[in-house]
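for the record, two folds in this file. i put them one after another cuz i was lazy. first one right below, seq on top, structure tokens after. the second one comes after a little note so u can tell where it starts
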Amino acid sequence: MTEGPVPEEEYVIDFGKGDVKRAGKDVTLIAWGGMVAKSLAVADDLARENIDVEVVDPRTLVPLDRDLLIESVKKTEHVVIAQEAVRRGGVASDLASIIQEEAFDYLDAPIQIVAGKNTPIPYNKSLESSCIPQEEDIAAGVKRAVYADQPVEDLS
């Protein structure tokens, strides 16, 4: 569960407008929903290792702010996509496809997808956390993207 401040006044999030939650120059980390807070924590931790992570929250997936994603990828040249859902058939695969089609020439390494394990999500909190990506999983994905010489684990 994600906790944080909630505005007291009424507000609107424009459909199709993503948000750069943290600017960076080394890698674009795309996350939405519960993965945003974890991604921001990872970005703060990796800053101590001199990895400057840009965290991008698309906020809406349909319509998608393609321009924001592509501009970030052009800047960082590395991409990690974090989602709670399993990898197969997930939104991350669609985003990776879009980035490959529209920004392939800017990529310096394969796109990394950090996704949930291929199992139903249990109700038990500790079991749930073993099935969805945690901060250490996201950090490992970022390092694979940035360093690109580490073997890619099969997370499916």
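(here's the note) second protein begins now
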Amino acid sequence: MSRDCPKVAYFCMEFGLNSDFKIYAGGLGILAGDYLKAAKENNLPVTGIGIRWKQGYVEQHIDDKQRIVDSFYNYEYDFLQDTGIKVNVKIRGRVVHCKVWKVDCFGNSELYLLDTDLRENSDRWITGQLYGWFEEERIAQEMVLGIGGVRALRALKKDIDIYHFNEGHAVFAGFELIRERIGRGEDAHEAWRNCRNNIVFTTHTPIIEGNESHGLDILQYMDAYDGLDRNFIAEIGGNPFNMTAAGLRLSKKSNAVSAMHGRTANAMWKDVHNRSEIISITNGININTWGDKTIIEAARKKENLLELHMKNKIRMIQHVYEEKGVELDKDSLIIGFARRAAPYKRGDLIFSNEEKISPLLKSKKVQIIISLKAHPLDFTGKEIIKHILSIQEKYPQSVVFVNNYNMEKGALLTRGVDVWLNNPRVTKEACGTSGMKAAVNGVLNLSTLDGWWPEACWDEVTGWQIGNGFIGRTESEQDIHDGKSLYDVLINKVLETYYNDKNKWNEMMVASVNAMVERYSADRMIMEYYDKVYK
């Protein structure tokens, strides 16, 4: 580390450091956890700022009547280090005390977590559930993260050069940084201009409805203005106040998380005046967390990976048997699909034409493991899960739904299946790092050309593409087109290679692993942030 290496504070609503540390929901948190691990491994001066969630994200199970049951539990952790520091944030006219915990035991750079679950607070449940409840509580949580996060850094006496807002949840930190400068004698616009030199912003959401907005009145009621003027707040984020637009206007530079997402984001936000430039830095994964070292080394030597992969496959099959009572065939092609049950990800697309898929499932030529989790209020996502459960009922020996998707199950599947299926509607997936975790373990990707895959896909060499990047006029048109392409590629290319050309399959596995290690590690990603954004 050079002496002039910028010291970074990395703000994020969630961090996925370990499956049992329940402060993550999905890909955003896993990315943030991998980022902190890369910072530690490369000796980079990064400080994470997040929230100590009492109940974390939802635990989701299917009961014996095939109903989706959402559960929340209070978690205690003996590895949290008490810093002895508390900071205060005014929320809804009341002072909210925030305790600051430190976590550095997962091979990560230091992470500080704010916690409102204190006896002296009447609002102790603000940090209760990640992405839980409704608008007021979401704003309160974001005030704790942003305003409280900056105040925690001051109390910790951290010398910070760059404030990195990983998604729009953190933008209230920008208000606090401006307020500090105004307190030192600068006028509001001068403070804003100067703060921009120290702020960078990452956007992850290529769906316009997914970019959070709030009315100025509710922000005022919540005390989110942080002492700033209403008209000034509107200049930053508009009215209603858009958190992503605010991030773009508060920062000196912004980034999307894949080349394709960069094009989508620039088109989506082209009308936001006075915004920062949006460049592309493709996400990466922490190889030490997600990769099988034996497979990586064998791929480097271009050795046979089939037997090594079979060990991971048998281990996964045993886990599925213990959890579900279904014994999958190790010699059959097993397809994996595990992620959030967001509708655009189309978790049930492979079942869209039962006439096509049914013979493959009945013969066990194809077996499918699916693990999804829907937000408690995402009723469309829950309908997708119910559809998959109905398919599982018809083909119980070939379709397995695994409860409660989490980091541990994600790691098991991305090592054990043969093919990783990813079929988002094109332009809707920002990156899709689960496919990277599969690729580094020799699991071949079968994906639409979205997110990271257009950069990594060398068709029939590192995996397979579904379609040609087609974007339909309607969702239905796109789903029909992609469904046909999925079946065509699966039947004529994937199955043909798996059952009739093991040498080619092995060559593809080797190519996939080596391309992944070289180009899609979190090490490469964090160095790009330092080279292209922080400096």
